[in-house]
Amino acid sequence: MRKPLIAGNWKLHKTIPEALDLIEALKKDLADKTDIEIVVAPVFTALVPVAQAVKSSNIALAAQNCYCENSGAFTGEVSPALLKDAGCSHVIVGHSERRQLFGENDELINRKLKAVLAEDLIPIFCIGETLEEREKDEMMDVLKRQVTVGLNGLSETEMFKVVVAYEPVWAIGTGKVASTDQAQEAHAFVRGLLAGLFSTPVAEQVRILYGGSVKPDNVDGLMAQTDIDGTLVGGASLKAADFIRIARFEKM
Ligand SMILES: O=C(CO)COP(=O)(O)O
């Protein structure tokens, strides 16, 4: 059984007081939710105060990015070791905004994944095709490349810790959610890739989250799909009521 994981990627939003307000609301209304894992990913500057606020709660803390070295002359970067020191248990790696706006490629993402795992943190490894790639019928090739190169060299033991997030770029921040069939098809394809690259147990146990315009009114249909094990939520994770409803998805 794969335990559902509902994660909020706050992106570049929320001051420390705003982040703490949101956390208080989530702690209050989601305290009883032990049947799922809840993760929030604030901006770097809010990580330490949010880590204090979520201590002894059922909410885990993720960073939105990291570098692949733990120390050295890398101005402006933050390492997995320092994220752990700040109280993170998870790190989002390879988000499409990192790929598109900051030039991250599959090789760098692979190095980041290894660095995250070396610190015993859980990577939330993002993949997904652009609209242009989907229209050219390249979705499967793109996912295959991202998964093959991104996860290259990981051991089976490491793979059991990885969380994959399928986020079709055309669905991110656009209000255009993938249909449940489109999402299920991509998730099943990725699970098949994991079986081929690693093993059946890895494919059966690794959680694959869906991300891209997840909202209270579409989460139930998405979570009803066999291969969708959770959601990575952007915009709707910034509003307590929306994220709470998403975390309280109804089993259909
Ligand atoms: O990028 C996302 C989460 O990482 C999805 O963002 P939206 O939910 O705002 O579409």
From TrEMBL:
<dbReference type="GO" id="GO:0005829">
    <property type="term" value="C:cytosol"/>
</dbReference>
<dbReference type="GO" id="GO:0004807">
    <property type="term" value="F:triose-phosphate isomerase activity"/>
</dbReference>
<feature type="binding site">
    <location>
        <position position="213"/>
    </location>
    <ligand>
        <name>substrate</name>
    </ligand>
</feature>
<dbReference type="InterPro" id="IPR035990">
    <property type="entry name" value="TIM_sf"/>
</dbReference>
<protein>
    <recommendedName>
        <fullName>Triosephosphate isomerase</fullName>
        <ecNumber>5.3.1.1</ecNumber>
    </recommendedName>
</protein>
<dbReference type="InterPro" id="IPR000652">
    <property type="entry name" value="Triosephosphate_isomerase"/>
</dbReference>
<dbReference type="GO" id="GO:0019563">
    <property type="term" value="P:glycerol catabolic process"/>
</dbReference>
<dbReference type="InterPro" id="IPR020861">
    <property type="entry name" value="Triosephosphate_isomerase_AS"/>
</dbReference>
<dbReference type="GO" id="GO:0006094">
    <property type="term" value="P:gluconeogenesis"/>
</dbReference>
<dbReference type="InterPro" id="IPR022896">
    <property type="entry name" value="TrioseP_Isoase_bac/euk"/>
</dbReference>
<keyword id="KW-0312">Gluconeogenesis</keyword>
<comment type="similarity">
    <text>Belongs to the triosephosphate isomerase family.</text>
</comment>
<keyword id="KW-0413">Isomerase</keyword>
<keyword id="KW-0963">Cytoplasm</keyword>
<feature type="active site" description="Electrophile">
    <location>
        <position position="95"/>
    </location>
</feature>
<feature type="binding site">
    <location>
        <begin position="9"/>
        <end position="11"/>
    </location>
    <ligand>
        <name>substrate</name>
    </ligand>
</feature>
<comment type="pathway">
    <text>Carbohydrate biosynthesis; gluconeogenesis.</text>
</comment>
<keyword id="KW-0324">Glycolysis</keyword>
<dbReference type="GO" id="GO:0006096">
    <property type="term" value="P:glycolytic process"/>
</dbReference>
<comment type="subunit">
    <text>Homodimer.</text>
</comment>
<dbReference type="GO" id="GO:0046166">
    <property type="term" value="P:glyceraldehyde-3-phosphate biosynthetic process"/>
</dbReference>
<dbReference type="Pfam" id="PF00121">
    <property type="entry name" value="TIM"/>
</dbReference>
<dbReference type="InterPro" id="IPR013785">
    <property type="entry name" value="Aldolase_TIM"/>
</dbReference>
<comment type="function">
    <text>Involved in the gluconeogenesis. Catalyzes stereospecifically the conversion of dihydroxyacetone phosphate (DHAP) to D-glyceraldehyde-3-phosphate (G3P).</text>
</comment>
<feature type="binding site">
    <location>
        <begin position="234"/>
        <end position="235"/>
    </location>
    <ligand>
        <name>substrate</name>
    </ligand>
</feature>
<feature type="active site" description="Proton acceptor">
    <location>
        <position position="167"/>
    </location>
</feature>
<comment type="pathway">
    <text>Carbohydrate degradation; glycolysis; D-glyceraldehyde 3-phosphate from glycerone phosphate: step 1/1.</text>
</comment>
<feature type="binding site">
    <location>
        <position position="173"/>
    </location>
    <ligand>
        <name>substrate</name>
    </ligand>
</feature>
